[in-house]
Design goal:
The complex is a heterodimer of chains A (194) and B (225). By secondary structure, chain A is mainly α. Chain A has 11 helices and 1 strand, in the order βααααααααααα. Classes of the chains: A mainly alpha (194), B alpha+beta (225). The interface between A and B is large, with 62 and 65 residues.
Chain lengths: 194, 225
């Protein structure tokens, strides 16, 4: 015999909202942490997101891929905050990319360096040093595994542009890491794993 | 391919986009050039590291806090379409044997407690208090009423501490899932009355506001009370 629910009234909008969002909360926090690099900032970002989207409950209830939609809104909220803080906005190529061009010399090879002590923390730190647009692409694609098309849906940036920026972002990340930890390559060659 | 080509194509290789002749040429150069081989391995090493970057867990009360803030900043609005029917004209048929159980679980009931309990309820965050009514047969038009203490509120019904309605019990388990939230500190009694004809069953539960805002029912505390 099954269980019959004899509470005849619908849930209130807050419960509906929470039921809808709760399954995505961890993913949103994780993405927010990737963007911000700080737990408190990530929590604040998710908080701001929920406050922003609550009035759109009815719209949210009709969205097929709510997770993608939430991620997209989170991304834009983050970018808006970054712009407000007058840091590096997502958008046109910036000076760092020009710098990349000069650093992208094939002679920057690190083969003669000795053992490395590179850690995940160093990678994380190096990511934080990237420009906002490069960091976001690295996070979305290489860390979180979003496809180029998904990033296009989220950011509105053309897939070809994403691809070229991602390539530059990776090169910049490698440059940053090798500059700070020039022993990386040999370290890798010796078979050490993270 | 030469070293410059390798530099250009490392990401294409990592994305598995190199095909046929390009892929062969890439691998041939990597096999013969220590520097490019080292660069490729460094790139793979970093990529692997990126995929392993940890994320610290959020604060323990993160979920509760963010939802409570939403409730605070977006005040609950009264649903428009709910009508309460107050029970009148009870039938005279004998009441089937009814057992009332308190079921404490945020989700599907998995624990049944036979006696009224003390349940902790968080401020401004609805949690489901489930009451289970077992019936030996189908019963039409059973009257149910809920009296809430002053410090509690049914989500979506601000200011309504008494609700009554008629319902139908089916043979077996019938659950009354009440979305309750605390609106101020303190404790009080929730009375659930089920009546059919001249039979009445009353269940009393003590609801108290959590001090720490914990979401879940304090089952252990309830059992020892």
């Amino acid at each position: 015999m099954g269980i019959v629910n004899i509470w005849p009234f619908n849930k209130g909008p807050h419960s509906q909202f929470e039921d809808l969002v709760r399954p995505h909360l961890n993913k949103l926090y994780k993405l927010a942490y990737r963007f911000t690099g700080q737990r408190d900032d990530a929590e604040d970002l998710v908080q701001d997101l929920l406050l922003k989207i609550y009035p759109r409950l009815q719209e949210m209830q009709k969205i097929d891929k709510l997770s993608h939609w939430l991620s997209r809104v989170l991304y834009h909220l983050f970018i808006d905050q970054v712009r407000r803080q007058q840091r590096s906005p997502i958008g046109p190529m910036n000076d760092e990319e020009a710098i990349y061009e000069t650093h992208a010399s094939p002679t920057a090879g690190p083969s003669e360096i000795a053992n490395s002590e590179i850690t995940l923390q160093q990678i994380n730190t190096a990511i934080q040093k990237l420009s906002e647009d490069h960091r976001t692409l690295i996070i979305l694609h290489d860390v979180e595994g979003y496809s180029l098309q998904e990033i296009n849906d989220m950011t509105g940036i053309a897939t070809g542009t994403i691809k070229s920026r991602l390539s530059r972002a990776r090169s910049n990340l490698r440059e940053t890491l090798l500059k700070e930890e020039p022993k990386l390559t040999e370290y890798v060659n010796k078979g050490t794993r993270l | 391919m030469n070293c410059t080509d390798i530099n250009i194509n490392i990401d294409r290789f990592l994305e598995r986009e190199l095909v046929s002749d390009d892929l062969i040429a890439f691998k041939q150069h990597i096999a013969t050039c220590n520097e490019c081989s080292a660069k490729l391995q460094a790139a793979q090493f970093i990529l692997s590291g990126l995929q392993q970057l940890p994320v610290p867990p959020p604060s323990v009360d993160f979920e509760q806090r963010v939802f409570a803030e939403v409730r605070k900043q977006h005040k609950e609005t009264q649903p428009q379409h709910h009508a309460f029917r107050f029970a009148t004209g009870f039938a005279t048929a004998a009441l089937a044997s009814l057992a009332i159980w308190l079921v404490s679980s945020t989700y599907f009931p998995d624990t049944i407690i036979e006696q009224p309990q003390v349940i902790s309820v968080a401020m401004n965050q609805a949690q489901t208090v489930r009451l289970m009514f077992d019936s030996e047969s189908d019963i039409e038009r059973v009257n149910l009423s809920i009296d809430l203490p002053h410090n509690m509120q049914l989500e979506g019904y601000p200011g309504r501490n008494e609700l009554s309605w008629q319902t139908r019990l089916q043979k077996g388990h019938n659950v009354l899932a009440l979305p309750i939230m605390a609106i101020e500190a303190g404790q009080g009694e929730l009375l659930a009355r089920l009546s059919y004809g001249d039979k009445v069953k009353t269940l009393l539960i003590v609801l108290k506001t959590t001090v720490d805002g914990a979401q879940r029912y304090q089952l252990d505390e309830a059992k020892s009370t």
